[in-house]
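User: Can you model how S-adenosylmethionine sits in this protein?
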Amino acid sequence: MAIDKEGFQFVCALLKREAAIVLDESKEYLVESRLSQLARREGLVDANEICRRIIKGDAVLVSQVVESMTTNETSFFRDQHPFEALQSSILPAILERSGSGREIRIWSAASSSGQEAYSIAMLIKEHFSNAANFKIDIIGTDISTEMVRRAAAGSYSQLEVNRGLPAKYLVKYFRKEGHEWFIKDDIRSMVRFEKLNLASPVGLVEHCDVIFMRNVLIYFDIKTKREILSRVGRALKPNGVFFLGAAETTLYVDDNFERCSMGNASCYRLKTVG
Ligand SMILES: C[S@@+](CC[C@H](N)C(=O)[O-])C[C@H]1O[C@@H](n2cnc3c(N)ncnc32)[C@H](O)[C@@H]1O
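Assistant: Here's the modeled complex, given as structure tokens:
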């Protein structure tokens, strides 16, 4: 059964309030389909029963609805070029200008099930033996409790490791248990995961050398994008580098950033004043 107008509007307002995610009329089918799946999992009749319950204030169901409406699409070494730039230009420069023992912080913002953060950790392990002299701190954050739990578990299906992960990395950095592939402890210990709502003014990750914030700004309106980019500006070290998704830009949103090309990748840096 199609979702009622009142229920749909309530879900849109809820998503905007809780996650800053904007759903327009064209997303009615998506809402209906995600809530129907949730209803089946929870033994409820349909999407409309979920709406009736959340309107009455069922707090557990409210957070399940927010979770179910996030899109968690990701993969290892997604879009490839940012990782090439990290390996060939960005990390060599950071390591060269940093004193031994110094902390290097990389933030994977909206990290979903963790593939991006672990891709960065594997790349460092594979190509930067001198990184052992530094404190490498890779932080993955996401609004979804379930995604943070999955990422921290570091466990992936065959389908997930088939997407983007070079075979030699699978052999070297994963172990197989039953049908699941688990990231090995030496890689897992380089990464930590936390729950963080990017739209919230509190809980920012600070002093970052590199920020990956890819494929998440697309869900927000211009005002939220501006607020988030302004916080990114404060989270980046002065020489820090910032990646957005291939379809995203700071252009017309925040002119404190300048776009730089690195090989086939585009990234952003804070403009220098003066
Ligand atoms: C499409 S995935 C992108 C994952 C990864 N960055 C990538 O590019 O492969 C979007 C992620 O953003 C998260 N997300 C959505 N709204 C968010 C918010 N307000 N704060 C933090 N994360 C959010 C979702 O839970 C989801 O895991």
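A couple of observations from the model: The chain is about 45% helix and 20% strand. The chain has two domains: 5-69, 81-270.
User: Helpful, thanks.
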